[in-house]
Amino acid sequence: MTTINSSKQKIQIDRHSGKIPHSVQKLCELCYLEHSIHRMLCGWGNQFYAWDDKVAVCSHVWDQACIVESLRNRISQFPGVTADQPVSAELESLVNTVLCAADFEDAIDGIYQIVNTVLVNRYLDFIEQVSAIHDAPTHQIIRQIVATKDLQRRWRSEYRQRVAHTTDSGYLKRISEHFEKVEYLKQPTIFDKQKTAAPLGVNTTFRPLAARIDPTWQTRSEHDVLDWIAVDFANQIEARQLFWPIGYMRELGLAMSQLHWIYDSPDMPWAFHFDESRHLWDESRHGDSGYTRMKELGITINEVGFTHSRDLLGNRETNCDGKTVKPILPTDLYESLFFIGMIAETGHFKVKREAYADFRDGGDLASAEMMLYDIIDETMHVQYAHQWLPALAKRAALDHTGYEQRASQIRKQKQLEADNRVATLKQKQKPNHESDPTYQLYMTLRDRVRSSCPLSNAASCPIRSAKPM
Known about the structure:
With 469 residues, the chain is an all-alpha fold. It contains 16 helices and 2 strands.
């Protein structure tokens, strides 16, 4: 519990005040800055290298989304105030300076150490200066925010023990100069209503970089191990027991792509970014749950790969510099959410429910639990697609009419293509499958999983649905 010094409290109105406390403008500024951090994490987040750090940044994106949402909700409770209240363009200059770091590690220090430290101090000032009785709801929100910031501070400290870095002195100086211009946010910034802050990054040349991936996580054989698993997917529960941890592990790649969905749609409503923040956090957790189950079953990411060389892993076409990625066009964002929600997630519900029941009945409760929580999350994700595709279609000037029928047709086509791939592999399997190292790996992993977690219904489980795509 933070100790309150009542002598530092300040009355938040004056003789000329209207019906809005002075503290509300400070909340609006804090909200803008927190939203900017959210966008910074989306812009830089795919540069983390280690698995746990990739998962952590997705969690931090969701943390930031919750911070922004809580502040927006509180601000909107004051009559006559909106959560999108304008703030000074000086704040935009400040956050853009933090965003435009020379390298990723500088950006991490700018976000987690410099900006967050100033924000925590201002939150503590707010608690001291604003009545804890009159404005108790805001106090409650701020205490939770400070607790979240402390967790982020501890994470960065641990990260720097693993990844040492000295922040560029010129970068630190530029940030300090901007903080000095706004008096380190100690007072609400007086500004010209004609010069207000735009979303972070839109008035800069900053572009996200292509995703950083450990090269040992990428397999380059002719076939992906999932190709051979697909051959036995419908007929053998042990193939499905091997498939799902690997399939889920690879969903972290989707979360890395979704970071850019958010960064490249600054014109979309905050509610879209909030939902997509939850969506990408869920996908990162699915990836982590799959990877955790893989390790429990004795499977390494280097064996099966985070991606196959034919997959793009969410990377988009790069700019002329060969490093930064081109912006996601409105049509591409619509099609991305359409495919994930209406094709991939909707198309896998049946096989996921079958897997849950079969793993549960066969005694692999850890895998069954993994399936169940994913089904719960994906049900919500499909609703996101239904909710936001109309707005994304309008933004992209696309005809959204009959989108469900279109999705159904594509799912059928994807199933046909998947069935044809399986048929082709079955023909190849007969004469020379033993010469394919990926097939040999598949057999080795099957034996390993069977030894680690035998299923009581391995011989009795009925034939199930084919792998959808």
